Amino acid sequence: MVICKSKAEIAEMREAGRIAGHTLDVLATYIRPGVTANELDKIAEETIRSQGGIPTFKGYDPGQRGYDPKFRGYNGYPSTICISFNEEIVHGIPSKRALKEGDIIGIDIGATYKDWVGDTARTFMVGKVSDEARKLVEVTEQSLHIAIEKMRLGSYLFDISNAIADYVDQFGYGIVRDYCGHGVGHRMHEDPNVPHNRQQTRGMALRRGMVLAIEPMINLGTHQTRVKPDKWTVVTADGSLSAHFEHTIAITDGDPIVLTLP
Ligand code: MF3
Ligand code: CO
Ligand code: CO
After folding, report:
1. How far does residue 232's CA lie from ligand 2's centre (Å)?
2. Sheet holding 211-214: strands in order across?
3. Which of 37, 42, 88, 194 is least crowded, fewest Cβ atoms below 10 Å from its Cβ?
4. Domain definitions of the chain by residue range
5. Which residues line ligand 1 (CB under 6 A)?
6. Is the pLDDT of residue 74 over 70?
7. How many CB atoms neighbour CB 137 within 10 A?
8. Atom number, ligand 1, closest to the C-alpha of residue 246
9. pLDDT of 200-215, one tens digit each?
10. Closest residue (by CA) to atom 12 of ligand 1?
11. Distance from Cα 57 to the centre of ligand 1, integer Å
12. Which residues are listed for a divalent metal cation 2 binding in this entry (predicted)?
């Protein structure tokens, strides 16, 4: 069931999104060799809370219970950010691991404000990275922007997926299929599911008030994924690099509104 949001609700969601986007801007200033994932996680939590927000991921349990505040901290995700190094695609858990020159680092963050969620991610380059890593990161970011351009009345869900696929396929990269974009609202994950790879059937028509997180995960090698024994960290099956960018976007009568801009 897709829950469309009113103009007033979208205005509130913009504040949640702004907190998440601003927090990524703050983290960007700390990206350098030697900084640890735990340090970034702590800065993220402090930044979100100082703006009146709550870290959405802490305690999140993607299992049967979904996102139920009753279960926060129970079998749930332990941290404020997900941090994914190099061949890690998404859902890496912060640890003592330090960033090093040449790494590409995906950071995903959720902020809850007035009971609305903003969900956003970027991939950062640490110092000087290889040309192939830089290209992967740039293409992934660009694919998100091309997808957002399609998020207008008159489009169907597959127009979003196919815009990403048309662009990314030129470079021969693998588009992750096992994890998708999604609706966002009071819960981080709502209907509909939005694939980023090519679709033959058009899916649902976009409607005014739909709020979607679009988050292409693009691999240098094949699209295939594997989950590490920690049961969270998703990596490329072939060990190739992966990049991830995400925004939460509202569909309106006119231009799409990117709710997670700082
Ligand atoms: N924010 C991720 C997504 O983009 C999901 C994070 S799962 C969590 O959909 F457990 F870390 F919260
Ligand atoms: Co996210
Ligand atoms: Co998301």
Report:
1. 14
2. 190-194, 181-183, 211-214, 247-250, 257-258
3. 42
4. 7-258
5. 57, 60, 62, 77, 82, 91, 108, 110, 119, 213, 215, 246
6. no
7. 23
8. 4
9. 999 999 999 999 999 9
10. 57
11. 6
12. 119, 182, 215, 246
